[in-house]
Amino acid sequence: MKVALMVTCVNDAMFPDTGKAVVRLLRRLGVEVEFPAAQTCCAQPMVNTGYLDEAVPVVRTYVDAFAGYDAVVTPSGSCAGSARHQHGLVARRSGDPALERAVADAPPTYELTEFLVDVLGVTDVGAYFPHRVTYHPTCHSLRMLGVGDRPRRLLEKVRGIRLAELPGAAECCGFGGTFAVKNAETSVAMGSDKARHVRETGAEVLVAGDNSCLMHIGGLLSRQQAGVRVMHLAEVLAATEDDADQVPTEQPADLAAQQSAGRTDAIQHGLEQGATS
Fold first, then answer.
1. Residue 108 and residue 212 share a domain
2. Cα–Cα distance for residue pair 65/222, rounded to 1 Å
């Protein structure tokens, strides 16, 4: 099976380790995975804010970049939901029959846990992560994709992990993309509730399947000096005994440092290292 990694804009710019973790994980499971350098945005920001016409060239770039693969895998329920549910709408609105056909014929896009559980048929991915963890199910993965308990089933098979139930887990964290910009006070209030629930669990690490939500919650936890690290689920599932002592106990305060260390070339470098190891 030949799979393409759709890394997402947020991970490209700020969290390259997540993309590299997906590559390590899938290759460990015997999947041939590539990173098409022509990929850009999934078009979700434009669609969600009503700019459907402006989304047309972005969707066209998406289907061109991922043509020819058996599947597209992304560490984001939000972006997977956009590809599955919004691209068809954009294509139909465009009035371009060729784009409609391209979207209809495009390889399926899977959120990471869907691909692991439904396509590969695995829940034990050989991970080791000896920390107390709580899991936040992000809105798009929970409601748009219906991933259900797949992330939880994967986490339960991780050796050494101690899972703590998150109160009010299904409640939105308040990020919502441009919602956080246009409705900042409401967004912060919702995020503060989520951060409080995270602290109540006594977890060392908050895990989720979307770094955008983790960035929002993690920023609040950092300002509260909660001592809770946020990590993408892919990084936990990719971890092995060799990584056991490499998890910081606090969320980095300077996200700008992560941003400067990001970009696509970091992901590509990780792919090249994996190919030669």
1. no
2. 37
232, pLDDT greater than 50: yes
Residue type, 81: G
CATH number of domain containing 215: 3.40.50
Contact 114, 186 (CB under 8 A): no
Q: Does a structural domain hold residue 246?
A: yes
Cα gap 211→75, rounded to integer Å? 8
Measured distance CA(211)–CA(192) in Å, rounded: 17
Please indicate whether residue 269 or residue 168 has the higher confidence score (pLDDT): 168
215 with 238, same domain: the answer is yes
- Residue 65 in 3-state DSSP? helix
240 pLDDT exceeds 90?
yes
Which domain does 229 fall in, by range?
132-254
For the chain, what is the mean pLDDT? 89
The CA distances from residue 96 to 38, 58, 156, 165, in Å, are: 22, 14, 46, 48
One domain for residues 161 and 114: no
